[in-house]
Design a protein that fits this description.
The complex is a heterodimer of chains A (264) and B (432). Chain A is mainly alpha-helical and 264 residues long. Among the domains of chain A are: 36-72 and 119-226, Orthogonal Bundle (Cytochrome Bc1 Complex, Chain D, domain 2), CATH 1.10.760; 227-264. Chain A has helices spanning 10-21, 49-61, 87-95, 127-133, 152-161, 209-224, 228-258, and strands spanning 98-101, 110-113, 178-179, 187-188. A two-stranded antiparallel sheet of chain A has the order 1-2. A two-stranded antiparallel ribbon of chain A has the order 3-4. Classes of the chains: A mainly alpha (264), B mainly alpha (432). Chains A and B meet through helix 1 and helix 7 of A and helix 4, helix 5, helix 10 and helix 14 of B.
Amino acid sequence: MKLSCLKFKPIVFIVIFVLTTNVSFSKESDVQLLKPDWSFNGFFGKFDRASLQRGYQVYKEVCASCHSMSLLSYRNLAEKGGPEFTVEEVKAIASQFEVTDGPNNDGEMFQRSRKPSDRFASPYPNENASRSANGGAYPPDMSVLVKARPGGSDYIYSVLMGYEEKTPENIKLEEGVYYNKYMTGNKIRMASPLSEGVIEYTDGTKANQEQMAKDVVSFLTWAAEPHLEARKELGFKSVIYLLILTILVYLIKKKIWLRIEPKV
Amino acid sequence: MSSEKPNQQYKPVHTNKVGGSPYTGVTGWIDNRLPIIRMFKHEYLDFQVPKSLSYFWSFGGILTICLILLIVTGLSLGMHYKPDAKYAFDSVEKIMRDVNFGWLIRYAHMNLASFVFIALYLHIFRGLYYGSYKEPRQLMWLIGIVIFFLMMATAFLGYTLPWGQMSYWGATVITNLFSAIPLVGESVVTWLWGDYSVGDAALNRFYVLHWLIAFLIVGIVVFHVIALHIVGSNNPSGIEPKDTRDTVSFSPFTTSKDLVGMLVFLLIFVAVMMYAPNYLGHPDNYIPANPLVTPAHIVPEWYFLPFYAILRSIPDKLMGVIAMVSSIAILGLLPWLDFSKVRSSVFRPIWKQCVFLFVLDFFVLMYIGGAPADGIYLVIGRIGTAFWFAFFLILAPLVSLIEKPLPMPDSIHEFEEWKRQGKIKTIKLFNK
C-alpha cells in the first residue's frame, strides 16, 4: 500500500494527535468510571445553583472535618457563576468560623470570627497535624482536586460511590485501609464518607449517597474552575464569531484570487 | 580662533544619502530619514511570491501570530506571577481566580504553548516534504533549527513555572541530564540549580531565562524572515519562479490566503482553549510541587514525547542525551545529506514515501514517549529511534542517488496547468 494515498486531511491529523498525546498508562485505570449527567458538561454547561449550595453543605458538614480548601474565600460563595449565596448568607457562613488575627496595637494575637474576605477555615493547623490525626495519610486540599485527578469530576464521583461492602478476596487490607473500586490502586485510607442520613439538607432534598456525591462533586468542580460558566459562554461567542469571520474572509480570498484564476 | 583651516578634508562615514523616498509630505519626510515605509511596501505589498503556494505556507505567519500572542499573554501573566517556590503555585491560582480575565490569559498562554508546537511541526513537515531546505535556503533552514531548539528550551522553562508536581519533577529529570557530561557533570548541575537540588533558586532563574529566551526567539525569527525575503518562498512545485506568470504580489493574494489559514488555526485553538483547556496538560501539575513524593509516571509535555522516547531508548545516560540532542540537530545536515536536485516530493516517488514513514515514526515515538519504558514499548522505541537516524543518514543520500524523478514542468504556471489537468497530485490541508 502506498502511504501517500493516506489523505493528510486535518481530521486524520487530529485523530492521530489525540490518540498519541493523551493515552493514560496507569494499569489501574481499566475500570470504567461512573459518568453522571453533569449539568456543567457540554457547550452550554452551567452549574446547578441549588446543587452547588447543597454541595457546600456536604463539604462543610462532612469533608471539611479533614480536607482543607485553602484557595477559596467565603466571598467566592456569593460570586456570579458559583453557588451564589446572598451576601448576607455568606457573612453568616463566614462568621461561624474563627481565625487568629493580629497583632493588635498591644502586640497581642487575638481570635475573631471570619469575614467574607477570609479564606476557608482549615481543619488542621498544618500537614503534620493532619497526618497524625489521619493515621499517617494526608487528606489532600480540595481547592483544585477535580483538575488534579485524571477523569476529573467523574473520578471523584466514582471514588465516592466506589466503596463496596465486600472486599475481593485477592486484596489484603491493612488496618484503617478501605477497598475502593475506582480509587487508583483500589486502596484508600478514607472510610466511605457519605452514607444515608449523615446530613440533612436544608432545602428538603433527600440526602441519599448518590445525591450527596453529585452535589459535592459539583461544588468541587466549581471550586476548581470558578469561571467555568464565563469560559463556556465566552467560548461559544468567540467560536461563532470566528466561524463567521473565517467564512467571510474565505469568500474575500476567493474573490481576490479570481483576478488571476478566472473560472475555466 | 575658528577661522583656522582644517588640515584634513571631511569624509562622511556613511554612504547612504537622505532622500530617495517615493512619498511626499510627512510620510516622505520620515521615509527619507528612516526608510521603513518604502521597505514595508517593498517587502510586504509588492513582494513577489510564487502563485502555487498551498495552505501549508500559512504556518510561518501563524507561528508569528502565536509568538506575538505568547508574548502579550506572558507579559500580562508576569505582572501577577511570583517566581518563588513558596508562592508560585498559589500566584498562578490567584491569576485563575481573582485577576480579571486571568483565567483566559493563563489558559491562552498555556494552550498557545501547545499550539505553537502544532504549527511548528506542520511547518517543518512542509519543509521536509517540499524540499524547502535545499539550495539556496540552507541557512534559513539552519536558523529555523536554532529557533526550534530555543522554543523547546523556553517551553520547558515555562512549564516549570506553575510549580506543580510535573513542573518540579520534569525540571529535576531534565536538569539532571546535564550530569551525564563527563567529569564536570555534577558541578554543572549544581551550577544550573544554584543549589544542591531543584528549588527556589532554580525557579527564580528559570523565570528569568524563560523571558530571555522568548525575546531571543523574536530576534532570531527576524533573521529567519530577512533570509526568507532574500531567497524567496519555496512552493509545492519546487521550481523557482521565472517571470510574472509564476508569481503574485504578497498583498492582497498571499495576505488574504494566509489570513484564512490563521483564522482556521485560531478557531481550533479557541475551541480547545475554551472547552478543553486542560486536555493537553497533565492533571498532576495541579498538585503543588512536593520534593518528597515522586509522581507515578513523570512525562513531559506532548510535544517533547518523541525526543523523550529517543532519550529513553538508549540504555546509557550520556549516549541517550547525545542521541536526543542530535535527533534534532541532524535536521541541520539534511540539506547536504539529501543532494537530489529535485526539491518537491511531488516529483520524488521514493522520497515521498520516506517522508510519510518519517511522520509515522514521529507519531510512534510520541506514543512510546508517553508509555512506560519497558517490554514491547522499549523495543518499538528502539526501532523508531533507529529509523529516525536512518532516515537522515541512510535514506536521504541513498534515495538521492537511486531515485528517478518524475517528469517535471518547466515553470510554476505550467505546474498549475498540470494540476488543473489532474496530471499531478499535491497534498492539501483543506478540500475545496
